[in-house]
Amino acid sequence: MISRQNPIYPKNWKEDFLKQPENSWFCDIPDDYIIESFNLTGLEDKFSYFDQELQVLVNKKSITKLADSIRETVWNELPILYGSIHARFIISPDGINQVKEKYNRREYGFCPRISCNKEPLLPIGITSELKKNRVKGFCPKCRGVYRPNPVVEIDGGFFGPNCPHILVEELNLRGKYREYKPYVRSAFGYHVYDEKIHGADNISN
């Protein structure tokens, strides 16, 4: 947290941002990806001082060197700009590799379903729009979407809905779904059917 009375800004914004525990789900976007204009299409008009913010992201300009009149706005918009670029980066080849490494290290947590036996989760945003939902975890085994535990306070739009489905193909995880065996309710050795799900015809008289 930056104090308004005695601000101490980091020398390298991106490095400082990524080392914060609450940002551990983010990948490290290479500078050459950040400055490639094709990767930034449609973003420029969404930020007040786009060029200056890019310079800070790639550490070509210190935030302390910005004019006092724009410094606070730039500081507040930097996480949003990084997150917006991040959603695009993680579906690029290099981004997929970084997510894959985090998945293999179980950094996104585990599926809470007992029948999934702690299957590692992949990150997913319910929508690409910002300020709609927090990021969630997608289980490639049961194909459910879950709130991380503990909760991760990152906008789901910074990940988007496409990443886990690309990773399922990249990691050959399709077979995980065939392994999934959902819990079936039973009493005295007989399955208990729900009429609303299975219909009255499936209930023995």
TrEMBL record:
Q: Which SMART domains match?
A: CK_II_beta (SM01085)
Q: Which PROSITE patterns match?
A: CK2_BETA
- InterPro entries recorded for this chain? Casein_kin_II_reg-sub_N, Casein_kinase_II_beta-like, Casein_kinase_II_reg-sub
- Please name the GO terms that the record assigns under molecular function: protein kinase regulator activity
Sorted alphabetically, the Gene Ontology cellular component annotations on this record are: cytoplasm; protein kinase CK2 complex
A Pfam family cross-referenced in the UniProt record is CK_II_beta
Q: Which family does it belong to?
A: Belongs to the casein kinase 2 subunit beta family.
Q: How does it associate, per the subunit comment?
A: Tetramer of two alpha and two beta subunits.
Q: What is this protein called?
A: Casein kinase II subunit beta
Q: Which organism is it from?
A: Trichomonas vaginalis (strain ATCC PRA-98 / G3)
